[in-house]
Design a protein that fits this description.
Blueprint lengths: L2 E6 L7 H9 L2 E8 L2 E9 H7 L9 E6 L2 E12 L6 E8 L6 E10 L3 H5 L2 E5 L3 E6 L8 E4 L8 E3 L10 E2 L6 E7 L3 H37 L1
Parallel strand pairs: 1-4, 2-6, 7-10
Antiparallel strand pairs: 2-3, 4-5, 5-6, 7-9, 8-13, 9-12, 11-13
Length: about 220
């Protein structure tokens, strides 16, 4: 479990103009909420938030969110970004119980070299970049690593087949495809296909010209 301290301040104004002014001062409007507590409007320094989430757990970092001296174990539940600049506009912090199960999305990373796939001009394709899991905050993995070394052209890895750490359970249909293997077209095959298509088109055009010539000849005979 990755854990770090993040300071937050209360007493911020909640209007749109005030929020814009805060962002200009590199303060980000935020809210803290959770079971059994009233939501608290807070603000956090942009730099502090960036540093807090810069570790290996990223958005799944378990925070000691300190609000006016009170510490709330929390994670980032939602982060709103500017549609163009992609800067953080607002953050939702969820207070958590370190011993209670929560659901989070964990990034997936492929490792290894699938030589059998490469030799067949195939491509290992990651179809799920994140996997939702249910676990306690103490057991949240930084990432899910899948070794593709032994993959072949026939390999398909489903959600139910993904190896997960003890105490971590995948959420979703076990038959969902997580990793598959694609067959890539080679330049030689592409050239052969293009040549075949061109030959077919030329043959069809020749047949059309011949039919047109026959029709013209028949017309001439009828005119006589």
């Amino acid at each position: 479990m990755s854990e770090t301290v993040l300071l937050a301040e209360t007493g911020r104004a909640t209007g749109s103009a005030d929020a814009r002014r805060m962002r200009r001062d590199d303060q980000i409007p935020a809210v803290v909420y959770g079971q059994g507590m009233e939501p608290i409007s807070v603000s956090v320094a942009r730099r502090d938030l960036r540093l807090a989430l810069s570790g290996p757990a990223g958005m799944n970092t378990v925070l000691d969110l300190t609000v006016d001296g009170t510490v709330y174990p929390a994670i980032v539940k939602d982060m709103q970004r500017h549609p163009v600049r992609r800067t953080v506009q607002h953050v939702d912090f969820l207070q958590i119980n370190l011993d209670a199960e929560i659901r989070v999305n964990i990034p997936v990373r492929l490792e290894g070299e699938a030589k059998d796939v490469m030799n067949e001009n195939g491509l290992v394709d990651l179809t799920m970049s994140e996997i939702e899991v249910a676990t306690t905050p103490k057991n949240i993995p930084d990432e899910i690593v899948i070794d593709v070394t032994d993959f072949t052209m026939e390999t398909t890895l489903t959600l139910g087949e993904v190896a997960l750490p003890s105490g971590v359970e995948a959420v979703g249909d076990p038959e969902w495809t997580v990793v598959t293997v694609l067959t890539m077209r080679t330049p030689v095959l592409d050239a052969e296909d293009e040549a075949a298509e061109a030959a077919e088109a030329e043959a069809a055009e020749g047949e059309g010209d011949a039919a047109e010539g026959d029709a013209d000849a028949a017309g001439d005979d009828a005119g006589e």
